[in-house]
Amino acid sequence: MARNKGAVVVNIERCKGCHLCEEACPSDVLEMNQQTNAMGYHYSYMANVEACTGCASCAYVCPDACITVYRVKS
Amino acid sequence: MQIASCLLQNHTIMTLQEIIQPANKVYGKTPLLTDTPMHYCPGCSHGVVHKLIAEVIEEMGIQDITIGIAPVGCAVFAYNYIDIDWQEAAHGRAPALATAVNRLLPDSCVFTYQGDGDLAAIGTAETIHACNRGENIAIFFINNGIYGMTGGQMAPTTIEGMVTSTSPEGRDVMLEGYPLKISNLLTILDGTCYVTRQAVHTPATVIRAKKAIRKAFENTLAKKGTSVVEFVSTCNSGWKMTPHQANQWMAEHMFKAYPLGDLKDQ
Question: Which of A19, B54, B212, B246 is within CB 3.0–4.6 Å of B236 for a Cys-Cys bond?
């Protein structure tokens, strides 16, 4: 079954590393980076790039509105 | 092998660049949310509700006529985060201030944003009387069961058996009374037109909560009376849990005392 291709861009400096996007993602795309941002938080990033379908679940639950979602229909 | 891995990486990067184009954007931060980083703890429900309110105001195009009333509590700095007009109320008095603002500017769209320590404790009288008068305002009520800002003390909304810094053995209803289900109380008042209880811990509940916020604003614009939207929320710092654990705990325990859904819709 063809599935949509998606990508997310995380506003690194706004992210507080709460893990809620990671828990909400149905495709296990997101993880917390080993690096930290200027506030000292491990920020979210796309660890499993290929799996993203651009469903925006991560962005809906993000309390800090850090996530921008892009989607291409296949 | 190295070349293959390099090619794969290049392919991935190319694909990402192709996907990340303005034409493909499906969701992003609304411009109504300012660039000021929110001071809330990581994973706090306040951020999601702020975001939803800002999105609804933007989608309805009512930025110029909307006036928010900020509470005392964690959300005291709400005026820094949503780019609309705000008034700051004394503790618990947001519905009284909203009454004044709405009566002076009847064509404005006034909402209050309050926590449970504000709305259901010190401001119980103001809340009940504003709803009973049927003031044409929307009330957004964040219920996390404790006083989050001051260190997680027991609130009137704390559920039975819940451990807080002032009820270390859990809330004992024989000693401290029962949790105050203020939204249920407000449904019996003739002035309220819409009372609902929502949550924002999963993508599905976030979508439903956004619809509830939109309905509350539509009722206000249609001058139907008072709309109350309660959000059963987490305070992971106050509850001493991770954000994910707090969401699970809320779904397991809070929803029993505060079941989600519309309580009144007229």
Answer: B246
Residue with tokens 């991935």: B12
What pLDDT is recorded for position B1? 39
Cβ–Cβ below 8 Å for B27 and A68: yes
What CATH number is given to the structural domain containing B120?
Answer: 3.40.50.970
Mean pLDDT of B18-24: 91
The answer to the question of residue B12 being in a domain is: no
The verdict on domain A5-66 having CATH code 3.40.50.1980 is no
Distance of alpha carbon B22 from alpha carbon B225, whole angstroms: 41
Q: Identify all chain A residues contacting B74, using CB atoms and an 8 Å cutoff.
A: none
For chain A, the domains span 5-66
3-state secondary structure of B195: strand
Which 185-204 residues of chain B touch chain A by CB within 8 A? 200-203
* Cβ of residue B84 closer than 8 Å to a chain A Cβ: no
Q: Is residue B187 part of a domain?
A: yes
pLDDT of residue B7: 42
> Which range of residues forms the domain containing residue B35?
30-265
In a domain, B62, yes or no: yes
For B240-261, write each residue's pLDDT tens digit. Answer: 999 999 999 999 999 999 999 9
Residue B5 three-state SS: helix
Q: What is the pTM of this model?
A: 0.93
Whether chain B has a CB inside 8 Å of the CB on A66: the answer is: yes
Domain presence at residue B7: no
Cα–Cα distance between B140 and B127 in angstroms, integer? 11
What is the tally of structural domains in chain B?
A: 1
Predicted confidence (pLDDT) per residue in B64-98, tens digit: 999 999 999 999 999 999 999 999 999 999 999 99
DSSP letters, B12-64, are: HHHHHHHH-SGGGEEE---TTB-SSPP-SPTT-HHHHHHHHHHHHHHHHT-TT
Query: Mean pLDDT of all residues in chain B?
Result: 93
Instruction: Give A21→chain B minimum CA distance, Å.
Output: 10
Please report the ipTM that was assigned to this predicted complex. Answer: 0.95
